[in-house]
Amino acid sequence: MQEKVTSNIPSDINETAQIEVLGARVHNLQNIDVTIPRNQLVVITGLSGSGKSSLAFDTIYAEGQRRYIETFSAYARQFLGGMERPDVDKITGLSPVISIEQKTTGKNPRSTVGTITEIYDFLRLLYARAADAYSYLSGEKMVKYTDAQILDLILSKFEGKSVYILSPMIKGRKGHYKELFEQIRKKGFIHVRLMAKSKKFATT
């Protein structure tokens, strides 16, 4: 017996590759019809007062948000409040949407759409928890070992061989560290690896 799987995505989204806006009359829009392709970068341009924001924010975005909130339970909707339907005859092919203001409060020049909308946080969590990490050098899957497992691997794979176990002492700082080298020598260490200007060399 096969179980029928249902989707929360409206049927008109699966049937069309475009968004159709019919009879938009919000603000200074005068009963216009617009067809916008999906999965593409679309730019709305025009003179000041021509209705760019009315179409993008007050019509398409407003209807997308209204449909998204309607999927919530009645209990959740009572805290969000109702949203009025924009003055438009029909909009098809529209999925839940995200709106980004033209002027953001962030001063960071490295801000992106992902960080502003906080989608980046969810993607980072998804890749960290659900994905498998692979080494870009060897291509092998990266796994986490306990301290005991690391010791067992070293003893089993490098038995009878010389092994260097390295740990960073200074990273990303400038200065002179003659006293640090002396302290390391007194603790019994005989080798130090220095990294300068992307060149590696060892000294004793």
Describe this structure as you would to a colleague:
The protein has 204 residues and is α+β, with helices and mostly antiparallel strands. The chain has 2 domains: 18-92, no CATH class; 113-197, no CATH class. Helices cover 33% and strands 13% of the residues. It contains 7 helices and 5 strands; from the N terminus they run H-E-E-H-H-E-H-H-H-H-E-E. The chain has helices spanning 11-15, 52-70, 74-80, 113-116, 119-130, 147-157, 178-186, and strands spanning 18-24, 32-37, 90-92, 192-196, 199-203. The strands form 2 sheets. It has a 3-stranded antiparallel beta sheet, covered by helices on one side. Strands 4-5 form a two-stranded antiparallel ribbon. Strand 4 (192-196) and strand 5 form a beta hairpin. The N and C termini lie far apart (72 Å). The model is unreliable at 1-9 (pLDDT under 50).
Q: Count of helices? A: 7
Beta-strand content estimate? 5-15%
Main sheet summary: 3 strands, antiparallel
Helix content: 25-40%
Order the strands across the largest sheet as they lie in space: 2-1-3
What is the β-strand count? 5
Order of helices and strands: HEEHHEHHHHEE
CA-to-CA gap between the ends? 72 Å
